[in-house]
Amino acid sequence: MTIQSADWHTRLKAAWDALRGTPADPGDPRARIAALELDLREREAELARVREEYGRLGGQADRDRAGAAAEGLGGLAKRLAPLFSQLATMQSLAEAGRELRCADVLKLFGKVASVLGEAGLARIGTVGEQIPFDARLHQRLSGADVQDDSVVAVRFVGYRLGETIVLKAMVSRTGAAPEPADDA
Fold this sequence. Notes:
Blueprint: H1 3-20, H2 29-95, H3 102-118, E1 121-124, E2 130-132, E3 138-140, E4 151-156, E5 158-161, E6 164-167, E7 169-173
Parallel strand pairs: 3-7
Antiparallel strand pairs: 1-5, 2-4, 4-7, 5-6
Helix pairs in contact: 1-2, 2-3
């Protein structure tokens, strides 16, 4: 046997003894190294298993989150579908020359707003309300400079979904005439 194969044989015996629980000679550095190498391999294998499990759970969480979002959107669509059906009927009647009552259209809008409100969509301001300007919530209509905390009038309401601003409220300086909007 060469020195290298004798060293390998000693390390293998020490590892085997460590696996069997046979106490190795504590004074033998080769036995200690073999035991440490075995411990390191076991820990690396355990770490690999934990990483694999973490990846699997992360993927499962993503799938669960996507499923919950789809389920929530599906529930919202089911609640809005009858209202949109009524709206489509009103549109067809109007296109056929039938006159619609404004009260009916506003009532339908109120139902749609109620369903969306229950889903978390909230208005920012009310038309005509005079409030301090907040650049996070408001978009100015007038060309004049409006500073934070300047009193402005809401011309078009905005919307937020939770903490996300979906549409800023359109505002102008108080006393300023409302400007026409292109896509109100």
